[in-house]
Specification:
Length: 228
């Protein structure tokens, strides 16, 4: 379970001070699929980065599985991220010199590769429909294929929480629909997913929608509710 308690995040000081998040509280239960939406500059990506420990809060608390992570030392935070939190970014962030299989294996190299890891990574590429592209490098893959490699990489550590920042932003609509169906399947398999998007059409794939504006939550609905 994830809890965000009265979190604020500011940048700069004085006249240059910007409030990115303003006293946000949010609870995400295990197995949930939450879409965070809102206009550009509403604080969506900042909230995702705070949840994942990539940015520090200015005030408030972030609690993951009963552990307060917002005030952890960096080494402890890295350990939490490796075991529990995986990211899928809009820009894919694949290493161009590595094959698809090697990119999927990358998170495991930080812990020392084990004999069974190549099989695990190969099975994940098969799961996202890319088993025949395992030896291809990113420049030999389409945008949708690169994003699916990034999804497989996010799954390789078996993290329970998947954070996705505009994961369909760089692909066409048809490819994006396929990627969203992959996220639905991940959710059905037990992963908790928090996805940032400015596209309300993506909301139909989620269980809950949280709308931000000017750094605060302005609406929150579950599928089947009326709102937004």
């Amino acid at each position: 379970m994830l809890e965000v308690r009265s979190v604020s995040k500011t940048y700069g000081e004085g006249a240059a001070r910007v409030v990115a998040l303003n006293n946000i509280s949010l609870r995400v239960d295990d197995g949930d699929f939450v879409v965070i939406t809102g206009p550009s500059g509403s604080g969506k990506s900042t909230l995702l980065n705070v949840i994942g420990g990539l940015e520090r809060v200015s005030s408030g608390e972030v609690i993951l599985d009963g552990v307060r992570i917002d005030n952890l030392k960096e080494n402890d935070l890295v350990h939490i991220r490796r075991r529990k939190v995986a990211y899928v970014f809009q820009q894919y962030h694949l290493l161009p010199s590595l094959t698809a299989l090697e990119n999927v294996l990358l998170p495991l190299t930080f812990c020392g590769l084990k004999k069974d890891d190549v099989r695990k990574a190969t099975e994940l590429l098969q799961k996202v429909g890319l088993e025949k592209r395992a030896e291809h490098k990113p420049n030999e893959l389409s945008g949708g294929e690169q994003q699916r490699v990034a999804i497989a990489r996010a799954l390789v550590n078996r993290c329970s929480l998947i954070l996705a920042d505009e994961p369909t932003g760089n692909v066409d609509q048809e490819t994006g629909e396929g990627i969203l169906k992959l996220f639905q399947k991940m959710n059905e398999d037990g992963h908790t997913i928090i996805m940032v998007t400015h596209n309300l059409d993506i909301a139909k794939h989620a269980k809950r929608i949280v709308a931000l504006r000017d750094g605060g939550i302005v609406d929150e609905v579950s599928q089947g509710d009326q709102g937004l």
